[in-house]
């Protein structure tokens, strides 16, 4: 394994960030290559834990000559977000200066040529230069896995419809319970930026048996522990072996994903009509009927007449819940996977 440290100057004199890049050279130039990154949202750590335990497995494979395709890993993809703390709270999703989501507004390239991206020392903000550098690292690879997590959640994947069903193997390897399929979000998340040049190719030249581009949602923010990190690392390793990036005769994968594949427009984003205390009636993974009680917002503590109980717009599965218990008007409270288009469906990503 080779370690590279890429330095990006800050937006004012006297400060900079360092991007740590770990590379494994494959011995077969025709083998599938892979790029994995975590913590693009700086406070999301389950993916970082998974990579922490995956790296020793890959180092062992490297020593034994079993790395077939090139592998690039960036365990901490956003040092800016990792350093953003306010009043003892880690706030790594939005950039402090612009309030922009770190996983939005990536450049959408029509080809895999990254020469036109802003250079490391270009006249753009640090956040923009960081996004360009992450694309330069990722786009040369056949597989791109962007590891995230939700608030309180099952393990699930975002996958563009064109990459299905070939990517059911990743869902099986990771034990994902659901796939959220998308066609066009128009928000230019990292996943979309990495899928975009693939989708510009004629269908006959895409070779989707080699490719995989996804956002992995490794459960919730607090699901960070040794056992979970090791299990997730083993799932990533199984997938890399299955795709031929790593050779390991002792590892096999049965592609038996049976979870729902839900278009984004079928996801019910249940939002708070008023601010107040949140009392959930359901847990993640629950199957609910249309009209079932989901959550009560207590707007006037001590006065039940101020309670607002929200019910399921349609039958489906509870995929996520928010981790906070005091909410603002309009905040997302949970995701429900439905079988039909949501009446509240709108273009773009599901959440800010």
TrEMBL record:
Its cofactor is Zn(2+). It comes from Phyllobacterium myrsinacearum. Keywords: Hydrolase, Metal-binding, Zinc. Residues 33-192 form the Succinylglutamate desuccinylase/Aspartoacylase catalytic domain. The lineage of its organism: Bacteria, Pseudomonadati, Pseudomonadota, Alphaproteobacteria, Hyphomicrobiales. Gene3D superfamilies: Zn peptidases. One of its GO terms (molecular function) is metal ion binding. The keyword Cytoplasm does not apply. InterPro entries: AstE_AspA_cat, N-alpha-Ac-DABA_deacetylase. The keyword DNA damage does not apply. This is Peptidase M14. Signal peptide: none annotated.
